[in-house]
Design a protein that fits this description.
homodimer, mainly alpha, 2 domains, Tscrpt_reg_Rrf2 (chains A, B), TR_Rrf2-type_CS (chains A, B), Rrf2 family transcriptional regulator (chains A, B)
DNA sequence: TATTAATCCTATCAATTTAATAGGAATTAC
DNA sequence: GTAATTCCTATTAAATTGATAGGATTAATA
């Protein structure tokens, strides 16, 4: 299952893209519009900022903003920050590899083989989707 | 993350395929060879039996066996039984659809769009992989 | 410079899920 | 009838998730 953290995070990022002014977007505005508990959202945006996806400005008229063009922000990065490894098992993770304690031989493990395929198919989606793609509205989508 | 339940279940099914005799395979044998807690494994195999993937024979010389040719058992079925819905969010699930309470319009939801792609890519793997594929050993794999 | 509005930080909590264990009932082979 | 096996229900410990609480810090501006 996708965690609420990730779901909220993706919605928040999309909202920021679509609030396209030069001013930072406030947590309260996002929370209200996307129906997200504000305090929870605060912690999520903080995570995204620490990961370098978002920048922030403190104090009055502060808020969050993107640090790159949305077309340059890949879902691989966003998903890893919010949801953790893309692989479903550590033994097929590119960025967080760990050997299974129970598995004698990775090369003959049936789970390993299957999970590599699942990982690659997910990677294929995330590598080819940017935040800009997510933020495209439906009408724009149709026009394309 | 893949649950241990699913991991153990996949390993157990593979083990049964590779124990290819006509006799049912005992839980104790699987548990021992695959390093799975026996009581936990019992409950997993019971689930697979109730779902129709495995058959069982009680009493002395009893055990579990496949009800179909491994080449006819798709990962879509196995994964749904063990891990639950393939979709990461209920609102894109083919078999367990549920509307999000927070989401106003599915058609414009950025999460929805992305998760449909992820679901389809996973389905593509699971629909094209059978238990027989999982159970192929490495050497056989190379020979192909 | 005082006030207000925002992010930042740490801690805590309740609910849920997961992984595992326990104990025995039912069934079957021999 | 005994031994070996699956079947069933209940319980539990640990981990994770989702959310809340309270205040510290920072910056704009009146």
């Amino acid at each position: 299952m996708l965690s609420k953290k990730t779901k909220y995070g993706l919605k928040a990022l999309t909202f920021i893209v679509n609030s396209a002014g030069d001013n930072p977007v406030q947590v309260s505005a996002i929370a209200k519009n996307e129906q997200i508990p504000q305090k929870f959202l605060e912690s999520i945006l903080l995570t995204l900022r620490k990961a370098g996806v978002l920048g922030s400005k403190k104090g009055k008229h502060g808020g969050y903003y993107l640090r790159q063009d949305p077309a340059d922000i890949l879902m691989t990065e966003v998903m890893r920050v919010l949801e953790g490894p893309i692989a479903m098992v550590p033994c097929v993770s590119l960025n967080y590899y760990e050997k299974c304690d129970d598995c004698v031989d990775e090369d003959t493990c049936s789970v390993h083989k299957l999970m590599i395929q699942v990982r690659d198919s997910a990677l294929n989606v995330f590598r080819n989707t940017t935040l800009a793609d997510l933020a495209v509205k439906k009408t724009e989508n149709i026009v394309k």
